[in-house]
Amino acid sequence: MKRRLSIAAAATADPGLDSVLGSFATYARLKGRYDDDWIDRLNHLYTTIIFIIFTIVVSTKQYVGEPIHCWCPAQFTSGHRDYANNVCWISNTYYVPFEERIPLHREGKQQKEIGYYQWVPMILLFQALLFKVPCILWRILGASGGVNLDKIVTLAADTQFVAPEDRERTIKHIVRYMDRWLENAREYRSGCLIRMRQTLSKYCCIVWGKRYGNYLFIIYMVIKIFYMGNAVGQLFILNEFLGTNYNLYGFEVLSHLANGDDWTESPRFPRVTMCDFEIRQMQNVHKYTVQCVLPINLFNEKIFIFIWFWLVFVSTFSAGNFLIWFYAMVFRQHRIRYLKKFLRVNECYKTELDKKMAVKFADQYLRHDGIFVLRLVGKNANDVLVSELVLQLWNHYRNKPLFRHANPISDDNSNV
């Protein structure tokens, strides 16, 4: 009973904060989460949607239309033809160009087998899942960082469309929420080893954790490496799945287009293949070799051409995005310069004391994770909101008792 009363008292102690941070839950789910940047959403959202659309297209053709049709002997009845089509679909056909002779031995035919077309929907779904896994990891690990990034960014972005008084109230609640999180994540222990770890975490991120102010940022950078490695690795996965040199497929397509070659038949996705099967009648076994057409490969060829270029596009942008975040966040001077820009805009960077406290504001108060959250707001909203948040956090920081006691400020500067 006491515990329930304490929970109720805590909820009523700050009704504004709870209402602002809690009322957007349903709306945020409907329009998606904004705890990452658009390159991450290019990976886990748009790419996943593309692969699911391709899966539906291929599955519809396979399970509703006729994915294979074989040219059977004249004595075959309709039942025999259906049987031949089904056998050749579930077993691997093999491709032999018309200018080459059909191999006589089984080993020669196995080297030319095509065994991927039955599994194209499964591999496309598997690729979609691989693009979603880093996002799931980020949501799980990010939730343990002690702050709800999605709510902060969503609330900040939504202040663009509300009345001025509601906008100011919401920003103040976001600042209070961030201040509580930053204070709770602070290291209150002391000692030589603790100070050394704090220094290492500040300059080179060798030491990381919630108490060192770089937990969210390090996790986010690791997830970006996963995104980048996933996009590149899927080229090699498809290379093994298709059984061809898929890594160079896009360059071959560009070469054919540049030379104006007539590319009506692709050896990777042949439309006419051969199929061997046996029919047992009493004690006799009849062997047949039939020629089959694979209409599904018309779709597979175009789909995997697009996938090659899309994977190269996504991996390139993911690598560039990782380098941008690394450059902006790892180096201490860039983090401080980012905050100084907004402090100058708000005319809070005038005196020598302001300049000294701006460094402490970045290193000791916000640290990596605080600046990371501000950059995330800027990526999903705009710099105007970041400027207002920085101003409110700066005023909040200057009004802290420890700051005012250690750094007496004149009345003119206290209300900046």
TrEMBL record:
UniProt keyword terms in alphabetical order: Cell membrane, Ion channel, Ion transport, Membrane, Transmembrane, Transmembrane helix, Transport
UniProt similarity note: Belongs to the pannexin family.
Compartments reported by the entry: Cell membrane
InterPro entries: Innexin
Entry superkingdom: Eukaryota
Gene Ontology BP terms: monoatomic ion transmembrane transport
GO cellular component: gap junction; plasma membrane
Membrane topology term: Multi-pass membrane protein
Role: Structural component of the gap junctions.
The protein's name: Innexin
Predominant subcellular localization, coarse grouping: membrane
Gene that encodes the chain: LOC115230030
Transmembrane regions: 42-59, 215-237, 303-331
One Pfam family matching this protein: Innexin
